[in-house]
Amino acid sequence: MFNTTKSTVPGVHVKKAKRHFLVTSENQLVGVLQVDPINLEMLSESHQSAIHEIYRELLDELTYPIEIHSTQRRRSLKEYREWLIGQKSSERRHKKSYLNYCRNLEKRGITTTTHYIVVRVDIRRENCVRELISRLKRIKQALSTDEFAVRGVTGKELERLGRRFGRRKLLAYKDHIRLPLRTGSDYRKTVYVHEFPANIGLGWVAEILRVNGLVDITQAIEPVDTTKATKQLDYLRKKSQTELNIGHPEDYRGVNKLESVSDDVEWFLDLLADRECTAVSYGAYITVHGRSWKRVERAFEQVLTLLRSLRIDYRVPVFRSDLAYSADSPLAVD
Fold it and tell me: Which of the four, 37, 53, 86, 94, has the lowest number of CB atoms within 10 Å?
């Protein structure tokens, strides 16, 4: 059911667009890299492991936060159809049939997915432009392998990206936001990942993106000081051990989960002690959007069903949908 209680809150917009970066209303320099998608299901296990290792090495080298945005939008074939109509062809019957096929495709909805890596630097930081360009170059070099195709988003393309995601204001409701457009509105409803199962596969993002609707996924990654992470993990280990000691034997499901948490924490502490990995703070936000509220609601329920089937624990932000916008937008600071 659509909730009508709303409040108008400020969004984030682009103040200035330069060739290699955007300057936002939050006084941030924003640089963007685009990464070509990889079909993991078509790769062997060894190839998937190689990709996972490249990704892990990138995270180990990070000394600053990044965001990975997978965004979807509808694709129009209008320009292509108009071009096709203007082409001379002796096979008029086949041409007409093909044009009808293109129209039917558009009616069903063609969705394109684009993957971006977003990097920010505060404009008040000394040598902020140089630092931003350096960060973008380091990430691009780390991913410049046979498995990945990465390029910088610059110039007019970056300017269009800023217009696409920039908003001066938005309407926040109890469990979603509405972005006013020139024609109609863009409804957005977000869920965030609270906990993953230990054996989650690399392709969980791709599974969510196959939902029948428009879905954006944001993965926010920020390095954490090793000492701080060790203290937090040690506290979690002691807490889970205490709960295990006072737990009820008949609560098998709760006991199994506590044992699993305790084992995972021990494993992670050993990795940190041996300096085999770097601790990072990780957040994943899934946003269903579209111009039809009913379609958004329907696709959102599909996302929740899929998350449950993948045994991914999630939370739906209530009364703070404006914060969900900040986490989801490539321009806003999470």
Answer: 86
Which of the four pLDDT bands, split at 50, 70 and 90, describes residue 253? low
Distance CA(315)–CA(168), nearest Å, equals 27
Each residue's pLDDT tens digit, 171-200: 878 778 887 765 567 889 999 998 877 677
- 3-class DSSP assignment, residue 204: helix
Domains along the sequence of the chain with CATH: 6-75+110-224+279-328 (3.40.462), 76-109 (no CATH)
Helix (H), strand (E) at residue 33: strand 28-35
Task: Find tokens 């490249």 and name the residue.
Answer: 54
Which tokens hold the place of 23? 């300057």
Question: How far is the C-alpha of 321 from the C-alpha of 144, rounded, in Å?
Answer: 37
Average pLDDT over residues 301-309: 94
CA 197/CA 311 separation, integer angstroms? 6
Instruction: Give the end-to-end CA distance of the chain in Å, rounded to a whole number.
Output: 28
Question: How many angstroms separate the CA atoms of 282 and 65, rounded?
Answer: 10
Condensed to tens digits (0 to 9), the pLDDT of residues 109-148 reads: 778 899 999 999 999 999 999 999 999 999 999 888 777 8
Nearest to 325 by CA among 185, 198, 177, 195: 177
C-alpha to C-alpha distances, 102 to 106, 112, 273, nearest whole angstrom = 6, 16, 58
* H helices present in 7-165, as ranges: 45-61, 78-85, 92-108, 128-143, 155-165
Identify which of 131, 149, 78, 85 has the alpha carbon closest to the alpha carbon of residue 107. 78
